[in-house]
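Quick one from the shared queue. A colleague (R.T.) flagged Multiple C2 domain-containing protein as missing a structural entry in our internal table.

Convert sequence to C-alpha cells.
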Amino acid sequence: WGVYDIDGGKEATRQDLRIGKVRIRISTLETGKAYRNTYPLLMLVNGGVKKLGEIELAVRFVRSAPPLDFLHVYSQPLLPLMHHIKPLTLFQEDMLRNTAVKILAVHLSRSEPPLKPEIVRYMLDADTHTFSMRKIRANWLRIVNVVAGMIDVVRWVDDTRFWKNPTATLLVHVLVVMLIWFPDLIFPTLAFYLFVIGAWNYRFRSRASLPHFDPKLSLADAADRDELDEEFDVVPSNRPPEMVRSRYDKLRAVGARVQTILGEVAAQGEKMQALVTWRDPRATAIFVGLCLVVALVLYLVPTKMVAMASGFYCFRHPIFRDRKPSPILNFFRRLPSLSDRLM
C-alpha cells in the first residue's frame, strides 16, 4: 500500500507529495491468521528519516487453492518459460522494467481516481537504483550478517582442531570415525542436523507484528546529511563544483578498496590456474608429481584408511603442530599470477 497526499483538482499540475508506504510480503503471512497493526509512515528525506503519520491495517491471508497446489507454487519459476529459453540481458531487463512501469502508469492514470506517474514509480520502486553510499554500507552489513554464521562454523572448527574444548574434539574424532566407516550416514546425518536446527529455531520465530521498513537496517538514522544530499541529487548534478569534487574523491577512495579486493580475488583464481599451466615450471612439476603420488596411494591404500588418517591428522593435538603456516598454503602463496603484468 502507498499513501499519498493526492490533489483531486483537475487542473492541478504539481506532483503529489509522498507520505509513505507499507510493504508486506505474502509468504510471511500465516494461513487464516488476522494481522492488525499500526504502521508508521516513514520517509527518507535530505534531513534524515521523517515520520509523516500512521496507518492502521488489518490483513488476513486466506488460501483458496488445495494444499498440494498451494505448496507446488514454491517450485514454480518466477519468470515465464520464454525467459528461460531465451534469457534477457541485464540491459534488456532494465528496458523491459522501465517500459512496464510506463505502461502501468498510463493505464492507472485513466482509473478513478487517476494515479499520477510519480505514484506508480514510487510504488514499484522504479527510482531506487540510484547510487547511494548509505545503501552500499547497508548491503555490506547484510553480507557480513549472512557470512557471520559460516565464520562461526570456521571458528568452531579451529577451536576443535586446537583442542580448546577437549571433550568436543574427542566427540568429533568419534564422529569422523563413524562417518568414515559408515559413509552412508553422511547425508542422513547432515539432513537430520538441518532438521534439528530448523526445529530449534521454530521456538524463536518472530511472533511480533508484520515487519515494516527498518531505519536501523537501512542505516537511515546513521547517515550524515552529505550522504543523503548525494543520494537525492539529480543526474547530472546541480550541486556546487567543490561539493561534487569532494564526493568524487570519496568515491575514488571506495573504488580503490573495491579495486584491491577484485585484484586479490583475480590473483587467487590465477594461482589456481597456474598449478597446471606451467607458468612456474618448478611449481607445476611439484604439483603434477604430487598428484601422481596421491593417485598411486589412493589406488593401493583403502579410501577409508586414507580418510581416517587425514581426519586424525587434521585434529591432531597442538603439541604436534607447527605455528608456521602449512607447506600447502606456503606453496599456494608462492604461485604466480598476472598481477605482475598489470601496468
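Residues 87-129 form one domain.
The CA atoms of residues 175 and 270 lie 36 Å apart.
Added to the table.
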